[in-house]
């Protein structure tokens, strides 16, 4: 697979990471399926979700793949009264990524990013490397620093 913008950013910053590739199709984009394909614990394979807050617009939430985002907790953590997920057709125009390949690193803009506190339980976690079929294995702390994320209870 080709080198993604995510990989270029990490290399430029000299951040230690690795990637793992896997076969994918339109019907198997969920994080639990991805975890199974890369033989990883679903709690360590984090998905990147993009939502719109009523007060501060676009926010990015990174949560374990086997959980759902708690919208009330997400709103509270991001200083909004209400949060709603963006529509699938908006993903590319907002983030520069496609569904199933959305990474918290290297979006079109630096949106406020929130990572579930469970990421701190692991030295390394997996997130999308910016395309379908490639996961990034990265230190939780490095991901927090690169994305300037805040940690919170999101699930």
Structure commentary:
The protein has 155 residues and is α/β, with parallel strands linked by helices. The protein has one domain: YbaK protein, CATH 3.90.960.10. 23% of the residues lie in helices and 27% in strands. The protein has 5 helices and 8 strands, in the order αβαββαβαβββαβ. It has helices spanning 5-12, 31-37, 71-77, 91-95, 140-147, and strands at 17-21, 46-53, 57-64, 83-85, 113-116, 124-128, 134-139, 150-152. The protein has a 5-stranded mixed beta sheet with strand order 4-2-3-5-8. A 3-stranded antiparallel beta sheet has the order 1-7-6. The radius of gyration is 14 Å and the shape is globular. It starts with a helix and ends with a strand.
Describe the protein's topology:
Blueprint: H1 5-12, E1 17-21, H2 31-37, E2 46-53, E3 57-64, H3 71-77, E4 83-85, H4 91-95, E5 113-116, E6 124-128, E7 134-139, H5 140-147, E8 150-152
Parallel strand pairs: 3-5, 5-8
Antiparallel strand pairs: 1-7, 2-3, 2-4, 6-7
Oligomeric status = single chain
Q: CATH class, anyone?
A: Alpha Beta
Structure annotation, total helices: 5
Please give the share of residues in helix.
Answer: 10-25%
- Under the CATH scheme, which architecture would be assigned? Alpha-Beta Complex
Work out the number of β strands: 8
Structural class: alpha/beta
CATH homologous superfamily assignment: YbaK/aminoacyl-tRNA synthetase-associated domain
Question: How many domains in all?
Answer: 1
Distance between the termini: 33 Å
Q: What is the averaged pLDDT score?
A: 95
Order of helices and strands: HEHEEHEHEEEHE
Q: Any idea what the radius of gyration is?
A: 14 Å
Estimate what percentage of residues fall within beta strands.
25-35%
Spatial strand arrangement across the major sheet = 4-2-3-5-8
Task: Please describe the biggest sheet, giving its number of strands, its sense, and whether it closes into a barrel.
Answer: 5 strands, mixed
Approximate shape? globular
Kindly report the CATH topology.
YbaK protein
Q: Low-confidence segments, ≥5 residues, pLDDT <50? A: none
